[in-house]
């Protein structure tokens, strides 16, 4: 397409005085070399495009930032080359050696849409995840099967293992079930987020913030206090100063979204669980903070409590929390391996071979670590805690059971139905947005194709 346009320009180049400017703009916008060949995405760029799009499912902060960049790039006041460079820089800064054109090419590839369709979870994949986390023997077997799959470079053995054990699903669906459950059930984010940063939204310097500790779906602490009446839905934890009312008030309000970083940024080597959002301190309630701050954190030990600077509830034994989080660690590593193995096995995927060559050793290393961890004596997961039930729905159900007022019960039941519907719609919207017909692809197509 580009070559045809250039030849048309050459045919009238010497007869119409301004056409040389059009030709120059065409060459510059497409980064064409002097031999007039097009820069089609390489196998490496397509492979990285797969890694990027797949990571958007687990890294909500990355996804939100990408959507913001797409929106900014669609503004007509900016030049085409600036828009494409802007998106390319975003990908590079976040550790993905690819281009916006390669991302669009993958989104428009039938293989990618087949992948999105194939990874939709079902009841059987949900059941397997729950069984896996409550059966240490099954957990170890699954880790070893994925280890063998990593050696073979495909998921055939994993899929066969599931069928032989009575689970009518695939490994990629199992991984999707785990991701869907993390968005609904706060248990899956259990851990000590002790490395936190706050920065005034009105401007100012960043400084260490309060630790956030997730003890499961029933208890969360921010700084020295446990939260009252928090909500968790669609991957986001929210709380208000009103809390549950009466004695159950909170000293802050906030909203934070949990994410999983699989790929280190260019200036930050951290990989693992994170959160990002905001926290608000009402004026006069805290000597160190006042107003609204951006709030970001990652897994790590908080600074030790000191007089006048308490980072976490003194009564909390973070070792128990960390041990439970360690139980989930191998599953996250296994899920990472499953995603890359699926991409590497894509026969119709241009970057599949490169993906396999590039990440085979990394995948194997992560799975080997997971296998070793499952061999250790890990704390038992409470029955039915790590399941497909929404944390918010569970809380609402408890409220409904604790009241004898028929009118109030009806109102809570309606709220439960709305929450369950919103959870399913959120998951479907997230999947649809990563297909060739989704908003993500359409916006990107408008930007990139203008440059062709």
Describe the structure in your own words:
With 452 residues, this protein is an alpha+beta fold. The chain is built from 16 helices and eleven strands. The protein has helices at 2-11, 19-30, 43-58, 60-73, 80-93, 100-107, 110-118, 123-134, 136-152, 156-164, 171-184, 318-344, 352-375, 391-401, 406-432, 439-450; strands spanning 191-193, 195-200, 207-208, 212-214, 220-222, 225-226, 231-233, 236-239, 253-261, 272-281, 291-298. The chain has a seven-stranded antiparallel beta sheet. The chain has a four-stranded antiparallel beta sheet with strand order 1-4-5-6. Strand 7 (231-233) and strand 8 form a beta hairpin. The radius of gyration is 25 Å and the shape is globular.
Q: What fraction of the residues are assigned to beta strands by DSSP? A: 5-15%
Output mean pLDDT. 84
As laid out across the biggest beta sheet, the strand order is 3-2-11-10-9-8-7
Structural class: alpha+beta
Q: Which labels suit this protein?
A:
single chain, 452 residues, 7-stranded antiparallel β-sheet, 12% strand, globular
List the helices and strands and how they pair.
Blueprint: H1 2-11, H2 19-30, H3 43-58, H4 60-73, H5 80-93, H6 100-107, H7 110-118, H8 123-134, H9 136-152, H10 156-164, H11 171-184, E1 191-193, E2 195-200, E3 207-208, E4 212-214, E5 220-222, E6 225-226, E7 231-233, E8 236-239, E9 253-261, E10 272-281, E11 291-298, H12 318-344, H13 352-375, H14 391-401, H15 406-432, H16 439-450
Antiparallel strand pairs: 1-4, 2-3, 2-11, 4-5, 5-6, 7-8, 8-9, 9-10, 10-11
Entry summary:
The chain is α+β, with helices and mostly antiparallel strands and 452 residues long.
């Amino acid at each position: 397409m580009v070559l045809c346009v250039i030849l048309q320009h050459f045919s009238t180049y010497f007869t119409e005085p301004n056409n040389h400017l059009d030709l120059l703009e065409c060459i510059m916008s497409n980064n064409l070399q002097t031999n007039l060949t097009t820069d089609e995405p390489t196998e490496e760029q397509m492979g990285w495009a797969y890694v990027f799009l797949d990571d958007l499912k687990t890294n909500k902060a990355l996804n939100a930032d990408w959507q913001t960049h797409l929106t900014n790039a669609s503004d007509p006041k900016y030049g085409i080359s600036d828009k494409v460079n802007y998106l390319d820089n975003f990908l590079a800064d976040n550790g993905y050696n690819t281009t916006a054109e390669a991302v669009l090419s993958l989104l428009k590839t039938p293989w990618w849409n087949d992948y999105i369709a194939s990874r939709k979870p079902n009841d059987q994949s949900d059941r397997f995840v729950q069984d896996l986390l409550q059966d240490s023997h099954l957990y170890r077997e699954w880790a070893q099967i994925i280890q063998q799959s990593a050696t073979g470079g495909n998921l055939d053995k994993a899929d066969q293992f599931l069928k032989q054990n009575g689970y009518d699903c695939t490994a990629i669906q199992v991984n999707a079930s785990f991701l869907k459950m993390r968005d609904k059930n706060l248990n899956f984010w259990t851990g000590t987020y002790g490395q936190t940063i706050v920065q005034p939204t009105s401007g100012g310097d960043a400084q260490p913030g309060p630790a956030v500790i997730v003890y499961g779906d029933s208890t969360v602490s921010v700084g020295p206090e446990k939260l009252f009446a928090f909500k968790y839905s669609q991957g986001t934890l929210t709380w208000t100063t009103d809390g549950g009312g009466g004695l159950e008030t909170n000293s802050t309000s906030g909203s934070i979204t949990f994410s999983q970083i699989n790929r280190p940024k260019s200036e930050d080597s951290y990989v693992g669980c994170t959160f990002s959002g905001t926290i608000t301190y009402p004026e006069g309630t805290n000597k160190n903070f006042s107003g609204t701050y951006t709030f970001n954190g990652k897994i790590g030990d908080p600074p030790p409590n000191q007089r006048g600077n308490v980072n976490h509830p003194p009564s909390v034994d973070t070792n128990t929390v960390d041990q439970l989080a360690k139980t989930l660690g191998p599953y996250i590593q296994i899920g990472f391996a499953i995603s890359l193995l699926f991409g590497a096995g894509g026969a119709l995927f241009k970057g599949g071979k490169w993906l396999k060559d590039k990440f085979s050793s990394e995948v194997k290393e992560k799975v080997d670590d997971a296998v070793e961890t499952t061999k250790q004596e890990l704390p038992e997961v409470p029955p039915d805690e790590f399941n497909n039930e929404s944390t918010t729905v569970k809380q609402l159900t408890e409220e409904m059971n604790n009241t004898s007022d028929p009118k109030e019960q009806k109102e809570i039941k309606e709220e439960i139905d709305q929450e369950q519907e919103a959870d399913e719609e959120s998951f479907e919207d997230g999947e649809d947005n990563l297909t060739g017909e989704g908003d993500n692809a359409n916006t990107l197509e408008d930007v990139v194709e203008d440059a062709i």
